[in-house]
Design goal:
Length: about 325
């Protein structure tokens, strides 16, 4: 099929160039004066060259050179990405909604016969991770995830929506677990002579507040939510990856090198990017050409991204020490 596509592109290019050459000859070559005739020949040749370029653009538009779409999931997984949140993500990192949109764009593209999902993430928010997994699962065609440096927690959750997961020998894979976290500032308030008062309705509305200590009932309540997310993670990953649930629980949320993860069945195979592309060629039974899809950003977003990069460079190290400084009780995979 790729050979037919290439042949069709060549035909389009030559056809457009021929039309441009004829138009150039008709406009310039038939001028009566001899000097003008020479100039007309040059202009006709120039028109043919321009036609070749235009034809190439038309051919690439009608029959793109790629047949595989690649989408990257990099950095902590958040809803909106872009360097916001605590700890900060790398400025300009697409959020989960953007990544879902890219996968859906690939799914709507008739030229994208397969999806490569490049994973380099330590995990992140629960529901955004599952949104990306579902988008990959819905893609109509082979889906292959491959881990570069890290495919942990939410990254592994996402990979369970793909047909296969590849990793490098030195990749970090696993962390099938969930955590909830908060900062407690009750003693600090007492030391500085401040008193926290909040009006709320519902016994557990204030559970997890950073300004009060957890009692046993609140701790049990919040732990129940963490356990529920963990059960969902294990069930989802076990079904998607074809692994026994007990085997996943037995990992105790540890991370493993790619070689160990492969021996344990957490990944399907080990290899480089070239090896992954060869595998996709086997699945499609034709040579592959990939195109990486990236979200488009307007001028305002690009300017904001530049400011974020400065702020990120100045403050990421400090902010990362206080991952829950806003006091919100967070659930992460």
């Amino acid at each position: 099929m790729s050979q037919l596509r290439a042949l069709a592109r060549a035909v389009i290019v030559l056809a457009v160039a021929a039309v441009a050459a004829v138009v150039g000859w008709a406009l310039f070559f038939r001028t009566p004066a001899s000097t003008a005739e020479l100039l007309g020949v040059l202009l006709a040749v120039g028109a043919a060259v321009v036609g070749l370029r235009v034809g190439g653009n038309v051919a690439r538009s009608l029959l793109p050179e790629y047949n595989v779409a690649e989408v990257a999931v990099e950095g902590p997984i958040t809803r909106d990405g872009g360097g916001g949140g605590v700890p900060p993500t790398s400025p300009g990192t697409p959020g989960a909604d953007d990544i879902v949109e890219l996968i859906e764009t690939a799914d709507d593209d008739d030229n994208a016969e397969a999806l490569l999902l490049r994973l380099n993430t330590p995990g992140g928010a629960v529901v955004p991770s599952d949104d990306i997994r579902l988008a990959a699962e819905r893609f109509d065609g082979p889906t292959v995830a491959y881990a570069t440096d890290t495919c942990a927690s939410g990254g592994y959750w996402i990979a369970s929506g793909c047909d296969e997961l590849w990793a490098r020998e030195g990749s970090i894979v696993g962390s099938v677990g969930v955590r909830g976290s908060r900062v407690t500032a009750a003693e600090l308030l007492e030391e500085v002579g401040l008193e926290y008062e909040q009006l709320a309705a519902g016994d557990y509305k204030e559970a997890g507040s950073p300004f009060t200590d957890l009692d046993d009932d609140e701790r049990e309540y919040l732990q129940g939510i963490v356990d529920g997310y963990y059960d969902q993670f294990v069930e989802t990953a076990a079904e998607g990856r074809g692994i026994d649930e007990e085997d996943l629980r037995a990992t105790e949320a540890k991370v493993f090198l790619g070689t160990d993860a492969h021996e344990m069945g957490l990944v399907d195979d080990l290899g480089t990017r070239e090896d992954v592309e060869e595998r996709v060629e086997e699945l499609l039974e034709e040579p592959v050409e990939t195109t990486e899809l990236e979200p488009t950003a307007g001028l305002a977003e690009r300017l904001r991204g530049g400011a974020e990069r400065v702020a990120y460079a100045a403050g990421a190290g400090v902010a990362s020490r206080f991952a829950d400084a806003d006091g919100e009780f967070r659930f992460r995979v």
